[in-house]
Design a protein that fits this description.
Structural class: mainly alpha
Organism: Nonomuraea maritima
Helix content: 40-55%
Number of strands: 6
InterPro entries: ABATE, ABATE_dom_sf, Znf_CGNR
Number of domains: 1
Protein name: CGNR zinc finger domain-containing protein
Largest sheet: 2 strands, antiparallel
């Protein structure tokens, strides 16, 4: 979700946003906000390639499994154990940073879909917002990425009802 929301989305909470000019800095800032550390040095070329990966993965949030399958093949997603102690990853041991991230992220999405939880992968339904999220509500009823989009949508619906 982080890759898609940071590098691919062009409308956020009713406003048009341009993709970041410095993708590397945007990703590093996003990881810092999420209190996660980058294990490797991220180059400008890696960041540009990750923007392409984000575009590849975005359709999975709307149920397009064919595109997700193509991404899994393209980035050689294979389960393997890495390191000491071994850690399960879904990329080849020699994969570069971008292919590793793409394979791991694509496999995570495929696993969510494969266990029947694909309906929890959502895109915000508010007009003018393309953010994606994982719906954690008990009955999978979440429609918006956050309260600001929910409030905007409800206010718009209220005003429309008042006019008629």
């Amino acid at each position: 979700m982080l890759l898609v929301n940071e590098l691919h989305v062009t409308h956020v909470r009713g406003r048009r946003v341009d993709p970041p000019a410095d993708r590397r800095a945007a990703l590093e800032e996003a990881f810092t906000r999420q209190e996660r550390a980058l294990d490797e040095v991220l180059t400008e070329e890696d960041a540009d390639r990750l923007a392409d990966v984000a575009a590849e993965l975005h359709p999975a949030f709307t149920g397009d499994v064919a595109t997700l399958n193509q991404a899994l093949v393209r980035h050689a997603a294979v389960p393997s154990l890495h390191g000491d102690p071994p850690v399960l990853a879904f990329h080849a041991p020699g994969a570069d940073l971008v292919d590793a991230w793409a394979a791991d992220a694509g496999t995570a999405l495929a696993m969510v879909i494969g266990v029947g939880q694909g309906r929890r992968l959502r895109s915000c339904e508010a007009e003018g917002c393309e953010l994606v999220f994982f719906d954690v509500t008990r009955n999978t009823s979440r429609r918006f990425c956050g309260l600001s989009c929910q409030n905007r949508a409800k206010a718009t619906a209220y005003r429309a009802r008042r006019r008629t």
